[in-house]
Amino acid sequence: MDTIFGVPTQALFGQLLIGLINGSFYALLSLGLAVIFGLLNIINFTHGAQYMMGAFCAWFLLNKLGVGYWWALAIAPVAVGAFGVLIERLMIRHLYQLDHLYGLLLTFGLALIIQGLFRNEFGSAGLPYQVPAELAGGQNLGFMFLPKYRAWVIVASLVVCMATWFVIEKTKLGSYLRAGTENPQLVQAFGVNVPRMITLTYGFGVGLAALAGVMAAPIYQVNPLMGGDLIIVVFAVVVIGGMGSILGAILTGFGLGVIEGLTKVFYPEASNTVIFIVMAIVLMIKPAGLFGTQK
Fold this sequence. Notes:
ABC transporter involved in vitamin B12 uptake, BtuC, two-stranded antiparallel ribbon
């Protein structure tokens, strides 16, 4: 059997694949958090619950309405994003001028309420969601077996992340979004409805979390606790990349997923804490994060 650094090749590449899968979800979720914090200055602790809602929305569409995976990819982010818009208009909009702590406490409370409601309705046991037929099976690459669905998740996540970065950093719409957070009166003078733009931005960030939930549903069981288990890690990813940094969220998400996967191969005991160890080291060296700027 072929080995690399004393580790069987198949095991090493298998863990790398798992790392990239986890990194895909870290990147999508931390991207949504970075968009919301960078443009709205709100620490959205409801993000994990909204990720879970995306997975449950896909499950409901399939099992109750007979709507398959591909339609769920389009419907669930819009539905959960609309729920996010409602939250922003009714609650979060009143906190923009206050300290970040108020937004954190509000969204943390909302996350507990949402998670509790789903747990009371569906229990703690996971619900299965089948891989779409078009992406069933996989390809034997010789050194490892590559499931088609997992390859799709990695590619789709990368495309969505880079498209979001391009829109925010390289287009006129993105410049309006950034300017609207710095000087809303000036942007409004150009005929841009800043409050509506802020609301839609929050909805978009929530939609990214729901999209990640739909893609996670066939890999992990749909569970009311799935977001709560993940959100702490995702916040660590955002802090390492730099709060509000779009590119930092993407690169750090994928990078830490790979590091976590490799740690499971070479030092499994540290696999659950390696991201937090990296966070501590980064904060000691660069408190603003790898791609963040000190304000």
